[in-house]
Write the structure tokens for this entry.
Amino acid sequence: MEIEWKYKNAFRKALKLIERYYPDYALIGRFARNFYAPPETTLDIDFLVNLDDYERLAEFIEYVSSQYQITPNDVGHWQYVIIIEDIKVDLVKPPAYKITEEFISKRRQIKIKGVGKIYIASPEDLAVLYVISSKQRGIKDIIKAKDIIKYSIARNDFSEEYFLKKCKENNVEHLCLSMLSSV
Amino acid sequence: MRIQTKGNYIYVTMWDKLSKRPKRYYLGRREELKKWEELLTFAREYKISDEEVRDYLNYYLDKDTNMTKVEYVLLSLSLGVELWKSSGSTKTLSEKR
């Protein structure tokens, strides 16, 4: 199917770019959420990468700019957008969020035919990222976090202990406890 | 659970599952009371029915990977972009930006 091929092609190109500069990346956002809950339509693919390393980021921007449009095109931001064949690819690193060894080791790997192997943030880390962003974006991100928690528990794939630990690290424990109280 | 105030700050007292005792969580300034009420209420009250969970496990779940079937995840992206392109804008994402 032509449409499917087109998206897989764009996804493969994005992945190749990101893996080259950020091997510790993780797929996040709604596209990642869809691996853990009933899928919802999405417009973009979001990657969490360490944008705090300015030297690497400058090299990345220079390399990407020669092939695609990247916005903004200087270092020091926490979100970048690259357009690859009509697909919006976001690179994100929420301020103060730490990409720890534990975060990296808990990523899930999945193989997509025509794209390759990709790493997805664990359900616990993804839920925490949504809880953090709900402070700015409101209840829609609470819904996404709770979807991930509920469906992951149903799959026997959710550690409350690790989730709460990450919530505590990111000062959103109260919201996380509220969600767990009624799952 | 009730949001309380202390001076210009708001807080909630909740059971800390990790330390197994009550703990006071500061939320921010009093001006943010409405926002926090909405977030905390929704966090507690938003529910997903057992039927929805059952449907997910029966139709969307790939038993081998214990994750959503890849074809549905990819479909969510292609449908999302195609719908966006056909809804009101004849321009593509790249032209828009």
Summary: Chain A has a mean pLDDT of 94. Chain A touches chain B through 58 residues (CB under 8 Å). Residues 164 and 177 of chain A are 8 Å apart (CA to CA).
